[in-house]
Amino acid sequence: MQKITVKNPVISEKSFSLAGKGVYVFRVTSSANKHLVAEQITKLFKVKVKAVRMINISGKIKKTGRKIGKRSDIKKAYVTLKAGEKIAIFETEEEKKAVSDKPVSRKQEKQPEKIEKKKEIKKEEK
Fold it and tell me: Does the pLDDT of residue 1 top 50, yes or no?
């Protein structure tokens, strides 16, 4: 059994802007390499990986009073997907609205009506 190399996606403004260009950012373990990351991304999200770039970020030294500490080191993977491939985690609100203008279920369709009825009942009671 292989170790899990992909920890979690990086959620930031920069990563969302890159996602529009087909590049997705993930935190990975320090022992991860490009081949393992590409393999796991294809298995997890069922997409085709074009390229993977890796970056090591050393932790900053922080001082609090007399004590000196160090933040942990981070390794990130920038995964470029082939044209037409997307990962749903990185969709913005505008993209979600553009894909589906309809409510997902009937409950969501009926909820605004219920709210309006409750407001009308409260007005009648007053």
Answer: no
More confident residue, 25 or 122: 25
Q: Contact 8/75 with Cβ under 8 angstroms?
A: no
Read off the amino acid at residue 108: Q
CB 70 within 8 A of CB 62: yes
CATH architecture of residue range(s) 6-90: 2-Layer Sandwich (3.30)
The domains of the chain are located at 6-90
The model carries a pTM of 0.69
How many angstroms separate the CA atoms of 94 and 2, rounded? 37
Question: What residues contact residue 34 under an 8 Å CB cut-off, 6+ apart?
Answer: 52, 53, 54, 77
Q: Which residues pair with 62 in a beta bridge?
A: 69
**The pair of three-digit structure tokens given for residue 56, joined into one six-digit string:** 């090591």
- Cα(24)–Cα(82) distance, integer angstroms: 12
The pLDDT value given to residue 4: 81
Amino acid found at 83: A
Per residue in 60-83, pLDDT tens?
A: 999 999 999 999 999 999 999 999
